[in-house]
Amino acid sequence: MANSAVVVNDLRVQRGGRDVLKGISFEIERGAVTGLLGPSGCGKTTLMRSLVGVQLVAGGEVTVLGKPAGHKHLRSRIGYATQNPAVYPDITVTEALTYFASVLRAPAGDVERVIDEVDLTSHADAIIGQLSGGQLSRANLAVALLGRPELLILDEPTVGLDPVLRDELWKLFTDLAQRGVTLLVSSHVMDEATRCDHLLLLREGELLASQSPAALREHTGEADLERAFLRLIKDTVS
Q1: What is the pTM for the complete model shown?
Q2: Please, where are the H alpha helices in the chain?
């Protein structure tokens, strides 16, 4: 637990009288890239919202960077990129990031740094509403990188991107982890699992596995991670 950025114990979330997360428990190691994988509607976004502290929970404990999720001292230590971009469409990339940098009280020079990190330097003065889908996703990620957060929670940051852009972002994620940043990256694309140090596999609100890709392959006897996930589902049902 001493080296854990996140500790979740018996987390339960209900919506409309239905269990969305069914008493899940796991830990996320500091400085690692953890993949949160599972089909759409399995509870990934709800779990991420719980870690950020903006989700009403029915039970359990969530500790983030040594404090209860949602604690005021965590605001500057966590970067959160939602699946739907939270940037204003009628201003430029630089203007949007300058605004968020002032809100977060980020250091001087942070705007230029994050624009470079997400490879938007050539579009720094472009109106956000005129960006392509991939550029918009990168602008949204840039907001989460402001202030050099210790923990990055990214909700499907590569959705809709072409393979080249996806590869570039995953190289950035790996680089950030090597600098000591902890990342939780959600996806429903199983081939991204191979890029992660650790995997959390969700299905219908239940945590099927919390393992490294190598351990998951060994546990299921499947070399392909998508087949390994399917094997876990089959074993759970049976």
Answers
A1: 0.91
A2: 44-52, 93-104, 110-117, 133-145, 163-178, 213-220, 225-237
